[in-house]
Amino acid sequence: MSESEAYLQIGEVAERTGVTQRTLRFYEEKGLLKPPSRMDGGFRLYSEDDVKRVKQIRRLQDLLGISLADIKDMVDAGEILRELKAQYRPEAGIAEKKRQLERAIEVVHAQYAIVKQKTEQMAEMKAQLEERLKTFERWRKELEQLDEKAAVALS
Amino acid sequence: MSESEAYLQIGEVAERTGVTQRTLRFYEEKGLLKPPSRMDGGFRLYSEDDVKRVKQIRRLQDLLGISLADIKDMVDAGEILRELKAQYRPEAGIAEKKRQLERAIEVVHAQYAIVKQKTEQMAEMKAQLEERLKTFERWRKELEQLDEKAAVALS
DNA sequence: GGCGGACTTAACCCCTACGTCAAGGTTATA
DNA sequence: TATAACCTTGACGTAGGGGTTAAGTCCGCC
Questions:
Q1: How many Cα neighbours within 13 Å face the side chain of B59?
Q2: Mean residue pLDDT across chain B
Q3: Which segments in chain B show pLDDT lower than 50?
Q4: Beta bridge partner(s), residue A46
Q5: Which of A27, B20, B49, B154 is the most buried (most CB within 10 A)?
Q6: Do B119 and A116 touch (CB under 8 A)?
Q7: Predicted local confidence at residue A55, as pLDDT
């Protein structure tokens, strides 16, 4: 949280993450991004952590296709872990930390289950597509042979 | 297209495909399903092919997370192929068939590329999650050891 | 042949995850 | 200080549906 970090305006964050400015404001509105600091004139100022978070959100969206509400749970759990990691002094109470950690583990487990299932389905689909392609190529060759014969018949 | 096929009403199709009746009408509206035949009273009558098509649409949606417009292209290509398969007489013109087949191959290639890319990204994500889980479990054990020591200190 | 319950119809608004202007304020550069 | 480039909030639009409802249809049973 040092004051000397390089802050980014919304346009640069948009460019670096591949999402639109509208999307960044939308994520903020929905609680997926914490409200960033502002310049005097009201312009949003993001941190590098915000950039990482946006990228994480997009990966979860693209790969798992889950709702933003679910993604919020996941990235929140990730945030908790980063906090646990950062403040390694036990002043917050061990029991409290343990609960947070177990909650986070639960979330990661759920995420893992989704990824595993999708991976399997994907592999199945990939195999089917490969088979399909082979069939089609064979047909194409058959058609080409028919075509050649027709050309010969016409000559 | 025989008249003796077992036709299904929308409710049964909904049940067998796992989508709502509303969704079936929506797909029809968007051109993903061809308008089914109707009973005298106006009730929709679906075929087994329609059921297959709906299942295919859902799989593409769930696994690839692509738009209905893209899905329409893909299932249309599949449809063309089924037609090619069915009418194996060359009356439609070989050149025409060849174009259709090549178009279909193109679409399947595109689909395959998406699946392949997603498969790779998914594998990467899975590995990351596994590593994460290991880290967390280690932390949990550390916390538990701290907890035991605290209990001993209090006794 | 007529009744009741299950089924279907189109129509309407609600939801998510943004896209797309519009009208105006801010910052940087000349 | 002017002007381009960037940003602000707000409002409306779109895709892909979900929920609900009033009204019409089908079908077995008496």
A1: 18
A2: 85
A3: 1-4
A4: A8
A5: A27
A6: no
A7: 96
Burial class (CB in 10 A: 0-12, 13-18, 19+), B63: middle
Nearest Cα of chain A lies from the Cα of B59 at a distance, in angstroms, of 9
Structure tokens at A91: 């002043």
Please give the pLDDT value at position B1: 38
In chain A, where does DSSP find H-type helix?
Answer: 10-17, 21-29, 48-64, 68-86, 94-154
pLDDT reported for residue B87: 63
Residues of chain B with pLDDT > 90, as a percent, come to 46
A81 in reach of chain B (CB within 8 A): yes
Closest of B119, B102, B56 to residue A126, by C-alpha: B119
- Compute the distance between CA of residue A14 and CA of residue A22 in angstroms, rounded to an integer: 9
Q: What is the mean pLDDT of chain A?
A: 87
* Domains by residue range for chain A, with CATH: 1-64 (1.10.1660.10)
Structure tokens at B71: 């899905």
Do A94 and B118 lie within an 8 Å CB cutoff? no
The DSSP output letter for A30 is T
Contact B63, A125 (CB under 8 A): yes
Q: How far apart are CA B92 and CA B89, in angstroms?
A: 8
Query: Which pLDDT value is given to residue B149?
Result: 79
